[in-house]
Every structure is written in structure tokens, then in C-alpha cells.
């Protein structure tokens, strides 16, 4: 049983790694586009951003600022925190 569970997690983790792009780009409105290097964030642990199974996260200003990106960078004092550090024209 224990082995079966470990195997299951391995499959889920592999499927996740196989289907996520290395990097995503968001439009970011008038401030300019935002690049999200997904691969570089994976070491933080999937659950930091994905609730339950890793799947698509709908991005918008609320999520980008108050739920994920800016919130975490400020809390951890790591990663870009200034507007133009994230938004590029
Ligand atoms: C720092 C936040 C963050 C972490 C940590 C993270 N992800 Fe993601 N992941 C995202 C975001 C945001 C997207 C959505 C990209 C998009 O579609 O715009 C995404 C997309 C994905 C997708 C693609 C979903 C789809 O249908 O397009 C997969 C699969 C995925 N992540 C797996 C993982 C796995 C596995 C881990 C852990 C090893 C992980 N992610 C860690 C933020 C994160
Ligand atoms: C759970 C915390 C967390 C979340 C959520 C998160 N980040 Fe980060 N981000 C980090 C950390 C920690 C670093 C620094 C990584 C390092 O130094 O290795 C970082 C670094 C970065 C970098 C710089 C990478 C480099 O190569 O220098 C960019 C760009 C970035 N994040 C964009 C984003 C965007 C866009 C989002 C939202 C989609 C996001 N991050 C969400 C923690 C997070
Ligand atoms: C850590 C990265 C990060 C930082 C820092 C950041 N943003 Fe964003 N911002 C995002 C992400 C991600 C989105 C969502 C982009 C999307 O959905 O196209 C966003 C969305 C926005 C939008 C909405 C765009 C639209 O029309 O949908 C505006 C406006 C904006 N940011 C302005 C700012 C300003 C002003 C600052 C500085 C005070 C700032 N941002 C700092 C990542 C960041």
C-alpha cells in the first residue's frame, strides 16, 4: 500500500513537471508584460501556489499582486518587488 501511494505521487509529480512550461508571460496591461519563470519557482514546492493538484491558475491583478507574486516576494524579501522589476515594456 505504502509503495502504491509513493508511486502515485511520483506519477503526479512527473505529469506536472511534463506539462508546465518553463516560463509564462502575462500581458500586464499598460504597465507592460510580466514574465513568470515557473521552472525556477518549482523548488519552492507546488503547494505554495497550487491548491490541491497542480493545474492552471487564472492570472489577473488580484492574483498577481495580492495572492501570489507580489505578496510572496514581499513576505520573503526575495524576487522582484518594484513595479518595473516585474512589468517590462
Ligand atoms: C510560485 C508559484 C508556483 C509554484 C511554486 C508552482 N507553480 Fe505551477 N504554475 C503556477 C502558475 C501561476 C501557473 C499558471 C501558468 C498559466 O497558465 O498562466 C502554473 C502552471 C502549472 C502547470 C500547467 C497547468 C496548465 O494546465 O497549464 C502545471 C502542470 C504546474 N504548474 C505544475 C507545478 C508543479 C508540479 C509544481 C511543483 C513542483 C509547481 N507547479 C509549482 C505557479 C506555481
Ligand atoms: C511562494 C513565493 C513566491 C511566489 C508565489 C512567486 N514567487 Fe517569484 N520568486 C520567489 C523567490 C523566493 C524568488 C527568488 C528565487 C531565487 O533567488 O532563487 C523569486 C524570483 C522571481 C523572479 C526572478 C527570477 C530570477 O531568475 O532572477 C521573477 C521574475 C519572479 N520571481 C516572478 C514571479 C511572478 C511573476 C510570480 C507570480 C506568477 C511569482 N514570482 C510568484 C518566490 C515566489
Ligand atoms: C512580482 C511581480 C509584480 C510586481 C512587483 C508588480 N506587478 Fe503588477 N502585475 C503582476 C502580475 C502577474 C499581474 C497580472 C498580469 C495579467 O493578468 O496580465 C499584474 C497586473 C497589474 C496590472 C493590471 C494589468 C491589467 O490591465 O490587467 C496593473 C495596472 C499593474 N499590475 C500595475 C503594477 C504596479 C503599478 C506595480 C508597482 C506598484 C506592480 N504592478 C508591481 C505582477 C507584478
From TrEMBL:
Signal peptide start and end residues: 1-20
Pfam families: Cytochrome_C7
GO molecular function: electron transfer activity; heme binding; metal ion binding
UniProt feature coiled coil, ranges: none
Keywords: Electron transport, Heme, Iron, Metal-binding, Signal, Transport
Keyword Magnesium: no
Cofactor: record remark: Binds 4 heme c groups covalently per monomer.
Protein residues bound to heme c 2: 86
Domain of life the protein comes from: Bacteria
Gene3D superfamilies: Cytochrome C3
Cofactor(s) recorded in Swiss-Prot or TrEMBL: heme c
Protein residues bound to heme c 1: 38, 41, 46, 49-50, 83, 87
Domain Cytochrome c7-like: 34-88
Protein known as: Cytochrome c7-like domain-containing protein
